[in-house]
Amino acid sequence: MNVFRFTAAVLILGVALGWQAAFASGNATVEDMRRIAEEGNPKAQYNLGLIYLRGDKVSRDREQAVRWFRKAAEQGHPRARHRLGVSYLKGQGVMQDSLEAADWYRKAAEQGLSRAQYNLGLLYEKGQGVTEDASRAEKWYRRAAEQGFVKAQYNLGLVYERGRGMVDQDYVQAADWYRKAAKQGMARAQHNLGTLYAQGRGISQDEVKAYAWFSLAAAQGSSKAQKNIEVLTSRMEPPEIAEARELAADLRSQ
């Protein structure tokens, strides 16, 4: 009997480890994932939620996705908490509820998830599910921006360029955050940084640098940047334009 029990335990452990190994390697089937999720593994629960959300090898089912996201979220899984917030904000698989969205975003944001910090900042900026508060929007954008989240860097630049509520207008900080986003390739940030260079706001006026940043944005389809290039071309000397194009090439290669 003892031998039988030992053998059975070994077999059960072996199967469990097999599921875990398949899960860890990314080769788990949907049924493997479901078994691990039903055992309470939050990562498997989150991934199973994604499978249902995307309809990956199963029929797309947003209610099932929310069910599994919730199980993982209640165990503290930050990405599941964020995804549950998205579901509530968009009314996907659950009744739309901005208050619930904000609550789940906050939980994930406080765990350091940059996308949740950015989205919570958006809610504060719009007054959606929370009281509109530019200073709190700035706080959460900054946390995400400091982790390199490009949309947060751009939005933080906007907050400082415009100045809202308790946040003072600050072109120096606006230029700094636009530059960070621009170097990551965001066309809107490249355009806005070019505008600050052209106007000399927060940074020394420099039409060569303005032209260069406009060029990068225009290459990505920004019609505003293209129009600004045409304006600068009409008043810049050929050597300055050549210098600006060379600078744009250098920036593009970085």
What is the number of helical segments per DSSP (H or I, 4+ residues)?
14
Return the string of H and E elements: HHHHHHHHHHHHHH
> Largest sheet at a glance?
none
CATH arch. level architecture of the domain at 1-87: Alpha Horseshoe
Report, as a whole number of angstroms, the end-to-end distance.
69 Å
CATH topology of the domain at 1-87: Serine Threonine Protein Phosphatase 5, Tetratricopeptide repeat
**Secondary structure category:** mainly alpha
Overall residue-averaged pLDDT value: 91
The helicity comes to over 70%
User: Which consecutive residue ranges, at least 5 long each, have pLDDT under 50?
Assistant: 6-19
Give the strand tally. Answer: 0
Q: Indicate the CATH class of the domain at 1-87.
A: Mainly Alpha
Please give a structural write-up.
The chain has helices spanning 2-25, 30-38, 42-54, 62-73, 78-90, 98-110, 114-126, 134-145, 150-162, 171-183, 187-199, 207-219, 223-233, 238-253. It is mainly α. Among the domains are: 1-87, Serine Threonine Protein Phosphatase 5, Tetratricopeptide repeat (Alpha Horseshoe); 179-254, no CATH class.
Short description:
It contains 14 helices and no strands. It is an all-alpha fold and 254 residues long. About 6% of the residues have low confidence.
Topology record:
Elements (H helix, E strand, L loop, with lengths): L1 H24 L4 H9 L3 H13 L7 H12 L4 H13 L7 H13 L3 H13 L7 H12 L4 H13 L8 H13 L3 H13 L7 H13 L3 H11 L4 H16 L1
State the main characteristics.
254 residues, mainly alpha, Serine Threonine Protein Phosphatase 5, Tetratricopeptide repeat
